[in-house]
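Hi U.,

Before I forget, here's the chain from the pilot set. I'm dumping it here mostly so it's searchable later in email.
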Amino acid sequence: MWSICKKELNQFFSNLTGYIAIILFLLINGVFLFILNDSSLFEFGYASMDKFFGLAPWVLMFLVPAITMRSLSDEFRTGTFEILKTKPLFSWQIVAGKYLSVLFVLLLAILPTLIYVITIKSLSAQGGIDTGGIAGSYIGLILLAAVFAAIGLCCSGFTSNAVVAFLISTFACLILYFGFNALSKIAVFANGADYYIEMLGIDFHYRSMSRGVIDSRDLVYFLSVIFLFLLITIKNIRKK
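Structure:
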């Protein structure tokens, strides 16, 4: 498993792809948060990271599929998957190794955003910020990235075309993140079912954790979705 993870990381950072992905994540967030007037934290007037945690999921929705789209699809396209299967590795070890490598890259992308917290705290008139809410939001953001990574890896295992894998995983992330919230707004579900439909979406649990309260139900939801998509991936590559 660790050999797979190391191989993936070496491949990811052996060219500019890995660095560009991380830089783009930081650059897009930085431009929206500090330069554009409509979304700038300076125009917001409050020492809050809410705008960042509202924007980051939409950036990750495209960044994560771009990172995962070649994870398994390239193995199928180039024929190296057959060679990989001859190694003394179980299917779950292959999937876990690739998944951990993606998580490591995403953590490298999220970690530098702590600079935003330091910047906002230094600019605050009172010198204080809601550390509890920010800590909860970061935990939610990491879990959100982990869910997107599991979805992207799963979609990459269904095709040998990396572009198709990117499109499918982006659509799947969009549906799971925002689709159930939009569905719950339909008038026919206004009799109480809207709440339970909204609970099926990632956005509901991500917003819940952004309040600074780590609810066990939110943790169970995120871990269950991750487990489900990784299980689908494992069963899929066993058939290959």
